Amino acid sequence: MKHHLTINLPRLLGRLEALAEVGAIPGGGVCRLALTDEDKAGRDMVSGWMRAFGLKITVDAIGNVIGLRPGRKEGPPVMTGSHIDTVRTGGRYDGNLGVLAGLEAIETIADAGLTTRRPLAVAFFTNEEGARFAPDMMGSFVFQGGLPLEEALATTGIDGTTVAENLRRIGYAGEAPCGRSVHSFVELHVEQGPVLETEGMTIGAVESVQGISWVELTISGTSNHAGTTPLRLRHDAGFAAGAIIHFLRDLAREMGGNQVATVGAVEFGPNLINVIPGHAKLTVDLRNTDEAQLQRAEERLFAFLDQLASSEGVTIEHRRLARFEPVLFAPEMVARVERIAGDLGHAVRRMPSGAGHDAQMLARICPAGMIFVPSVGGLSHNVKEYTAPADIEAGANVLLRMLLELAE
Ligand code: GLV
Ligand code: MN
Ligand code: MN
Within 10 Å of residue 5's Cβ, how many Cβ atoms? Predict the structure, then answer.
């Protein structure tokens, strides 16, 4: 089959806009934390679009939603998709673009009256962000078989409620079993970093995703009077938290390469101006493209925590929230993205992904790949996240070609 199909950009942009209205926050961003009422409204909207042109929808027990279009033959589908949950201060493209562009590509194929040999499917996976419930990529992790369903359902979020009760509450505790065989998976996503824009490129052919290590640290010291307690008698959990933040920046700088380290959430108790904090809780996000280096960073952090606990006279407990090794995408999928982008006249480069993605979970069960498009100013997890319509169109058309090729 030869195709000169192209996606309908106004329809895709219209849906991006409509979905961004759900949970809209000032500045043009979106707050649709996983399994909240806003997430439910977004899910209902996207499922409605899927249903409207005849996709057969299944919802599995972890709330992943899959829209299927049969092929000429039965068998495992060629799948695309991403997530529609966001961080609390998210943009409108992260994840949403991949889902809506996948929908757009399949609708374009349907509008043209084509039936591919293999079935096509578009999915949105539950709780990719991990901002409310850890680990991130939870739905695709369960789908792939790496995280037991019961464990995922029992996860308690930042507000003390569980995944299971929220799935039931919003009506997305589905009946379908988690997981199915998939022929191949391709995800369009915004880069969320500065590389494509800086280099004047339109398409990234993603070769790998860096490893992720998340831990939560709880520090217990002694609350005491800020005016009367001499420094030598302090067991200051707040000071210890600050020392950890500082240590991590130094560590990442000293290790160099692709090592990054972030403390994104901190809580002090009692959190008062004239009381030495007796309690602190913080999260650590470490990432590296190299597994050995990532392990080295973890070892050095834990060695520092031991030292700090004894010098400040505090205890530091840790709880593992997520740990994923770096992932390599199937070389034939990377080459395919690169070739199709080139054929369509786009400047393309191979690159690693700094962010985690559902495609890295699917890569464990089938050939998987990703298409990146530029993020203006490299901004993401920020309300100002933006990708220009021309780049959205380019990425969605690369996705469309990928799906057509893979499904034949
Ligand atoms: C998840 O999207 C992450 O990379 O933090
Ligand atoms: Mn994402
Ligand atoms: Mn994200």
Answer: 14
* 90, two tokens: 């998210």
On whether the CB atoms of residues 373 and 387 are closer than 8 A, the answer is: yes
| Residue at a domain's end among 293, 324, 355 | 324
What's the number of domains the chain is made of?
Answer: 2
Q: Which of 315, 264, 278, 102 is nearest to 189 (CA)?
A: 102
What does the DSSP 8-state code read for residue 231? Answer: G
CA distance 174 to 161: 19
pLDDT at 4: 84
CA atoms within 13 A on the CB side of 84: 34
> Does residue 1 form part of some domain?
no
Q: Is the CB of 136 under 6 A from ligand 1?
A: yes
Predicted pLDDT of residue 27? 96
Q: Which domain holds residue 265?
A: 211-324
Give the pair of three-digit tokens for residue 4.
């000169």
**Ligand 3 centre from 132 Cα, in Å?**
12
Neighbours of 125 (CB within 10 A): 31
Distance CA 118, CA 56 (A): 15
Helix, strand, coil abundance in the chain, percent, nearest 5: 35, 25, 40
Q: Which atom of ligand 1 is nearest to the CA of 130?
A: 1
Q: Which two structure tokens, joined as six digits, stand for 220?
A: 């217990």
Tell me if 9 sits within 8 A of 116, measured CB to CB.
Answer: no
Computed over every residue of the chain, the mean pLDDT equals 98
Whether the model clears a pTM of 0.85, i.e. scores above it, the answer is yes
Average pLDDT of 172-180?
A: 96
Nearest atom in ligand 1 to the alpha carbon of residue 192 is: 4
Distance CA 96, CA 81 (A): 9
Q: Give the integer Cα–Cα distance in Å for 173 and 66.
A: 13
145 and 69 belong to one structural domain:
yes
